[in-house]
Design a protein that fits this description.
This protein is an alpha+beta fold. It has helices at about 5-25, 25-35, 105-115; strands spanning about 35-45, 60-65, 70-80, 80-95. Strand 3 and strand 4 (about 80-95) form a beta hairpin. The longest helix has 17 residues, at about 5-25. It is globular, with a radius of gyration of 15 Å.
Length: about 120
């Protein structure tokens, strides 16, 4: 049976989490060391093909834009080399203490710049 399409948003969320780990700034460290959290303002997903239960899925993610307090992550979901879905997550940085918008930490901006340049 095909995988339920809404699951792709869960896969996108996980892909961003793994991307943050790959660039060296795990999400938990942003909360613990910077006092910030991210919430999703918008999600986009274009579906091309379904994934059947049990088939392996690979995701690719990259933060492609930073604003003052927001960032856009482009994400692709693939089965082998076949593109199943692609989209974006727009996240907003908020303070843990008061939930108001905060500037995205320079530590994250620099880590992404270094990672994408490598």
């Amino acid at each position: 049976s095909p995988n339920f399409f809404a699951n792709y948003l869960v896969y996108f969320d996980e892909a961003l989490t793994y991307y943050l780990e790959a660039v060296g700034v795990p999400y938990g460290s942003l909360e613990d060391e910077e006092g910030v959290m991210f919430v999703y303002r918008k999600s986009e997903c274009q579906y091309y093909q379904s994934l059947k239960f049990g088939e392996p899925l690979r995701t690719e993610a990259a933060i492609v834009r930073f604003g003052e307090s927001s960032m856009t992550t482009a994400i692709r979901a693939l089965r082998g080399d076949v593109l199943l879905a692609e989209g974006a997550l727009i996240s907003v940085c908020l303070g843990l203490d008061d939930r108001t918008k905060r500037r995205i930490p320079n530590r994250l901006r620099e880590a992404v710049r270094r990672y994408e340049a490598a």
